[in-house]
Amino acid sequence: MAENRLPETRDVWPRTLLFFGGGLLVFLALSVIVLGLVFNVVPHWPQPGRSAEGSKASPALQTRAEADLATFRRSQDKALATLGWVDRKAAIARIPIDDAMKIVAAKGLPNWSEPSSAEGECGLLKGQVPRAPQSASCANGNGGGQSP
Question: In which band, very low, low, confident or very high, does the pLDDT at 145 lie, cut at 50, 70 and 90?
C-alpha cells in the first residue's frame, strides 16, 4: 500500500532570513556611527596665517609640501649627478653615481678583510681611506683607529 508522505519542510524561512539580514545591516550602521563618535578621526588642520610664518618658539608650517618636496628632490638629484666639493679644505669631492659605479666595476672594491701591512688596522685604514677621522688617531699612536 501506498503510504501518505508529507512534503519536505522548508530549510530556510524567508521572513527569518530577511529579519536577520536587516538586523545585521542596522547593527553595522550603528557600529560605524558609535565608533565615529568614540574615535573622533576628523583631522584638525591649522589654518594658514600667523602660524605659517613661524616664530622662535615654533618653525614655519609648510604651505606647499608637494612643491617643497619636488624642489628638494631636484636639488638632491642634481647634487648626485654632478661633480663638486664636499669639503674643499679636506680635499673631499663627490662624483656622479654613474661614474662611481664605473670605477667600482673597473677596479673593484678594496679588500677590507686583510690588513695591507704589518701595522694592522692602521695600515689598512691609511692605505684604503687616508682621510678618515680614525686615520689621524692611528697617526697619533692611539692604535686601532679608535678613540680612548
Answer: very low
More confident residue, 142 or 65: 65
pLDDT band at 144 (very low <50, low <70, confident <90, very high): very low
The DSSP line for the chain is ----PPPPPPS--HHHHHHHHHHHHHHHHHHHHHHHHHS-----PPPSSHHHH--SSSPPPPS-HHHHHHHHHHHHHHHHTS-EEEETTTTEEE--HHHHHHHHHHH-----SS-SSTTTHHHHHHHH-TTSHHHHHHHTT--TT---
pTM over 0.85? The answer is no
**Which residue matches cell numbers 519536505?**
8
